[in-house]
Amino acid sequence: MVKEDIYILGIESSCDDTSAAVLRNGVILSNVTASQEVHKAYGGVVPELASRAHQQNVVPVVDQALKRAGITKEQLSAIAFTRGPGLMGSLLVGVNFAKGFARSLNIPMIEVNHLQGHVMAHFIKESDDDNHMPPFPFICLLVSGGNSQIVKVNAYNDMEVLGQTIDDAAGEAIDKCSKVMGLGYPGGPIIDRLARQGNPLAYKFAEPNVAGFDYSFSGLKTSFLYNMRKWVQEDPDFIEHHKEDIAASLEHAIVDILMKKLRLAVKETGIKHVAVAGGVSANNGLRNAFHDHAERYGWTIYIPKFSYTTDNAAMIASVGNFKYQDKDFTKMDIPVFSKVTFE
């Protein structure tokens, strides 16, 4: 008897990217994302504008994902969607579309935790013989604009948060410091580009002293702001003349904070399979630090492709594929949630 192919449509709409992806038996066929340029003028994501843009984008994005996958909607086995955490208005657009689409096709729906999706981006297969995935259990550093966590991943549906930020996330701190420098939004890619040309030891900023595996970035952000004010008072063109060194020093401080706690978690757990996920995992300084630690401490590291670091539907479909096999479906009246948590 020939095994029937399982096609999972993933939908991601937690923030300002509308994304749809199709997986066949866990192998990616398409991953389409529409980004929203409108927020750059405001220096950050405007929730109301984000939800409106999702309403405009969700149908054409899903249509493109199906076309690029070379399948019809009738071939879909299930629809996986981001339930949360995220912006309520943005989530509602994706969830309500998933509900309507699933009902019209009479196929099951699968809810996915956005953070779980980032971790499981490591299980997106690009071919049938793709076996780059980390073995369970592994440690994952999840770093993005809204989250900074160290997670012990025992299984796709069993994740234990060992430590997390008690205030700002790493990506949030980078964006805010970029704004102080007048570099624009989003700050992450700009700081990354400038840091490649600067001296990471040129300036020193305050680093937190937080017990355990938890993170804090508010003190670093405050230290950065006060130093900028002082240096600009002394030289109004200071930022323009030294932006590469400032960016490199900021990146160095943040990566140092992240890696110190990660080293501690690896030492305490004894697990040397270590992954990184989330938007900040696209940062070259952090990626270089992972390679350095692999060499120095004998870690086996897992770094996602750049296309799977930011919010994307392939990671949602990846979780959906696991849940489909366990017949872990959700009811039609499921609500969204905005709180940052693993359930």
TrEMBL record:
Co-factor binding details: Binds 1 Fe(2+) ion per subunit.
Matching InterPro entries: ATPase_NBD, Gcp-like_dom, KAE1/TsaD, Peptidase_M22_CS, TsaD
GO terms of biological process kind: tRNA threonylcarbamoyladenosine modification
Cleavable signal peptide: none
Classification via PROSITE patterns: GLYCOPROTEASE
Function in brief: Required for the formation of a threonylcarbamoyl group on adenosine at position 37 (t(6)A37) in tRNAs that read codons beginning with adenine. Is involved in the transfer of the threonylcarbamoyl moiety of threonylcarbamoyl-AMP (TC-AMP) to the N6 group of A37, together with TsaE and TsaB. TsaD likely plays a direct catalytic role in this reaction.
Descriptive protein name: tRNA N6-adenosine threonylcarbamoyltransferase
Species whose genome carries this gene: Prevotella jejuni
